[in-house]
Amino acid sequence: MKLLVTGGAGFIGSNFVRHVLREHPEDQVVVLDKLTYAGRMENLADHEDNPNFSFIQGAIEDREVVAQAVEGVDAIINFAAESHVDRSIEEPDAFITTDVFGTQVLLEAAREQEIGRYLQISTDEVYGSIDEGTFTEESPIDPSSPYSASKAGGDMLVQAYHRTYGLPALITRASNNYGPYHYPEKLIPLCVLNAFAGIKLPVYGDGMQVRNWLYVEDHCTGIYTALTKGNVGEVYNIGGPDECPNIEVVKRIVELTGNDESLIEYVKDRPGHDVRYSLSSAKIRALGWEPKTHFAEGLEETVQWYRDNEWWWGPIRSGEYLEFYKRQYGQALQ
Ligand code: NAD
Ligand code: DAU
Prior knowledge:
Blueprint: E1 2-6, H1 11-23, E2 28-33, E3 53-57, H2 63-70, E4 75-78, H3 85-90, H4 93-112, E5 117-123, H5 146-165, E6 169-174, E7 177-178, H6 187-197, E8 201-204, E9 210-215, H7 216-229, E10 235-238, E11 242-245, H8 246-256, E12 264-267, H9 282-285, H10 295-308, H11 310-313, H12 320-329
Parallel strand pairs: 1-2, 1-4, 2-3, 4-5, 5-6, 6-10, 7-9, 8-12
Antiparallel strand pairs: 9-11
Helix pairs in contact: 1-7, 2-4, 4-5, 6-8, 6-10
Bound molecules: nicotinamide-adenine-dinucleotide (NAD) and 2'deoxy-thymidine-5'-diphospho-alpha-D-glucose.
């Protein structure tokens, strides 16, 4: 198959490209990515010489670029998004442009060029927060942040294109990912790098919010399963095997980096903060998928990856990142 992977220079997209090129050498991968602050060619550096890999720089909301990128592909997998909740609270516009309008441009190109399959990479955040029990694919959409609302908008368009035009499209909704190449504005990599540097680890509110952690490689196998075995018109949840409150995650990072808990700092809560996410993955498990990595083991591997790859994260913690950090946490990083 020839796959168009949009947003393939970001965290999950680049892990997916690596997964496909390694596990499915019969496939070809074209990445289309705007290279925003979150998209980096460093994430794809190991494929430069791979004849099955090519890269186009461009935005999914740009009809011309998209029409060219889509030509001759068998499937589109759309990872491209503005993905950080805190940035969506500060400045929502780009989220609407990319996550809603960009998705519609891709769907339209897929329709015009009769692409065989369109897979939208979505999130458990579209369901909102759940105090008890677990979300299934039938749970109502009830997003809390401009980010999750923009993702919900994208999902609605995918379903509308399937129902109205018969586009062979489907959606996956995953829980919180972690692992290599995770941009350090998100909880786990931010705390790991702060801990390496002996800088405070910011915990929002009381730290009792629960996330359903999914190792990124397990997400990639879930996406490939849905792509090749899923039914069009369907939604598939891809949830991690373990739930954990934020404060426990941060305490574990403190331990793994040889620090003590005085490094933890409780800071102002996130507005509209979802208290708990929890996903039932029974539907994709029925297609033969299961997650392989438990949180304890995956977190240890992730900390080790950051220890070994300062070449990757060192340059990020400068420039725009420092400005965002100061606005977000009310203090300079150094
Ligand atoms: P990321 O922010 O690391 O990467 C996003 C990528 O999209 C970057 O390479 C960026 O350059 C690119 N991009 C942004 N706007 C673009 C545009 N207009 N045109 C083309 N490319 C553009 O995000 P991520 O964490 O890798 O998430 C990838 C996808 O998975 C997103 O759709 C997100 O909603 C979804 N998701 C993420 C998680 C998670 O825990 N990170 C969980 C579930 C679902
Ligand atoms: O659930 C899937 C979603 O997971 C994806 O759709 C998003 O793209 C992805 O960013 C992630 O969203 P979260 O908001 O859950 O991830 P984040 O790492 O930003 O925060 C995780 C939890 O940690 C959340 O409850 C907020 C909290 N937090 C976050 C940061 C950055 C803190 O306590 N301190 C922090 O400094």
